[in-house]
Design brief:
This protein is of the alpha+beta class and 505 residues long. The chain contains twelve helices and 21 strands. It comes from Vitis vinifera.
């Protein structure tokens, strides 16, 4: 209230209170004997456009949910959100089938949830009613900050949208689809951010009309930004980039004197566990978290580096910090890259790879897998294996089994999407190990590999059931290669382009 923006903040506070009162979120009552009210506080935040300009001044009244007691004030708190993999698949399908993609935002989403437990709260600061100072707010609807608020909101949205003829996706409960005579429509929900896809504008208009009749909605028109990811549509399809986010992260860690780099990880550096004193451990964890968001959304090319560096998060050293600076330098140098999708190819393709025992003192290999659709990656992973492999072939087979698990999830997701339900074929997985291919198609069990016998049988079952087929690819053409080890500059460029990471024309 002492800042020069006081007029904007007061307007934001009044907007918040108007929404709360019009929603009949609470009623003033005397505190029942034996009950304790929880407190509340105002949280202020400036929201920015992707270009850095101020979008809105936001004031939020938040309940002090940390004072709630489990089993008394709440029970279950789990609320699902859509996977970023699902979002990428939707944009790939939108590019392939030339779909319309619009965006909506639910105003005061958590206030829509109905509470099934009695919760009492102190009156908010600045809005204590005269002559009723001793009364408390009995919450009728959910409020931000309550432990059960996300769960109650999702249950309410779930009930409402299913009543309009939508149905769940079997593997992602935040994807809803509906098929009508003249259009098909998909709704994708991430807390209060919503994507609506359809092959006809009529489907989008009718869905918007229905949602606006039930909730207070903000129509954002054609999709522009989702979860901090900038979306651009061109004649070829959709492109996703995180240029603004990368600039913010690089600026946050500018004290590291970041220099441009052509690769995310220096192949000549062998990082070891730090047995000495930790160097800025909390800040290191923050840096890993920032990089991880980019790696999980659009920048698959830094996945291996982030996975590797996150293993030293408990006790980082100066060398680990230098490696962090290297990743940031690479992102700074390639911040304009976008994950681009086009009309072809219209089928999912997979790549699997493994690196066998990458350093002394660590006997676990690294698994890498990646799937492409519409010319861009939609799913990928770089993970340390959980069991010891005795050979390169065994390491590759463990990676192949992990890739197979992701194939099953992707197929189940696609089967429940109207635009692809009747066009889900066997997924081709490319592997650069002839020995692994021979083992996968062999029905003979070798007792020497009994510790991976379950994985062996699992992969063979996937092949027999027509879920996957495995083909050989040279290492130079294996897109999963950068997920298992550091590559040279030229190979980084080639594989990044193969994954759909390109400069927008």
């Amino acid at each position: 209230m002492a800042s020069r923006d006081v007029a904007f903040w007061k307007e934001a506070i009044n907007d918040e209170m108007d929404s709360i009162m019009s929603n009949q979120t609470w009623e003033l009552v005397d505190l029942p004997p034996g009950s304790k009210p929880i407190g509340c506080k105002w949280v202020f935040r400036r929201k920015y456009h992707t270009d850095g300009m101020i979008q809105t001044f936001k004031a939020r009244l938040v309940a002090k949910g940390f004072k709630q007691r489990e089993g008394i004030d709440y029970f279950d708190t789990y609320a699902p959100v859509v996977r970023t993999t699902s979002i990428r698949i939707l944009f790939a399908l939108a590019s392939i089938h030339n779909l319309f993609v619009h965006q909506m935002d639910v105003k005061m989403a958590f206030l829509n949830g109905d509470l099934n437990k009695e919760v009492y709260m102190e009156q908010p600061e600045g809005f204590v009613l005269l002559w009723n100072e001793n009364k408390v707010c009995k919450l009728v609807k959910s409020l931000y900050g309550l432990k059960q608020a996300p769960k109650q909101w999702h249950e309410k949205f779930d009930h409402v949208i299913l009543s309009d003829g939508f149905r769940h996706n079997n593997v992602d409960k935040c994807l809803y689809s509906k098929t009508c005579d003249d259009y098909m429509v998909i709704v994708c929900l991430y807390v209060d951010d919503m994507l609506i896809l359809s092959d006809d504008m009529k489907g989008i208009i009718e869905t918007k009309r229905f949602l606006s009749s039930t909730f207070k909605m903000k129509d954002l028109g054609e999709v522009d930004t989702i979860l901090g990811i900038k979306v651009k549509r061109n004649s070829g399809g959709y492109a996703l980039n995180q240029t603004h986010y990368i600039e913010k992260v690089v600026s946050k860690f500018s004290h590291l004197k970041i220099k441009d780099a052509n690769t995310p990880f220096d192949s000549s550096i062998k990082l070891e566990k730090n047995d000495g004193r930790s160097v800025a451990q909390l800040e290191y964890a923050s840096a890993i978290g920032s990089l991880m968001y980019a790696a999980q959304c659009t920048r698959a090319d830094i996945s291996f580096a982030v996975s590797k560096l996150s293993r030293f998060i408990s006790n980082p050293s100066v060398e680990h910090w230098k490696a962090i600076g290297r990743v940031l330098g690479y992102l700074k140098n390639t911040k304009e890259l976008s994950l681009q999708y086009s009309k072809f190819p219209a089928i999912i393709e997979g790549y699997s790879d493994a690196s066998w025992i990458s350093r002394v003192g660590d006997n676990l290999s690294t698994t890498g897998w990646v799937f492409t659709l519409g010319g861009g990656v939609v799913s990928w992973g770089s993970k340390k294996q959980t069991c010891i492999s005795h050979s390169t072939m065994e390491a590759e087979f463990i990676a192949l089994a992990a890739t197979g698990k992701e194939v099953e999830w992707l197929r189940d997701l696609m089967v429940d999407i109207p635009f692809t339900a009747n066009n889900v074929s066997t997924v081709s997985i490319h592997c650069d190990s002839q020995a692994t291919l021979a083992r996968a198609y062999s029905g003979v069990y070798n007792g020497k590999s009994r510790h991976i016998s379950i994985r062996h049988e699992y992969v063979r079952q996937l092949i027999q059931n027509g879920i996957i087929s495995i083909s050989f690819v040279r290492s130079s053409g294996n897109l999963a290669d950068p997920f298992t080890k550091p590559l040279t500059r030229d190979l980084v460029r080639i594989t990044s382009r193969g994954m759909g990471l390109k400069l927008l024309k």
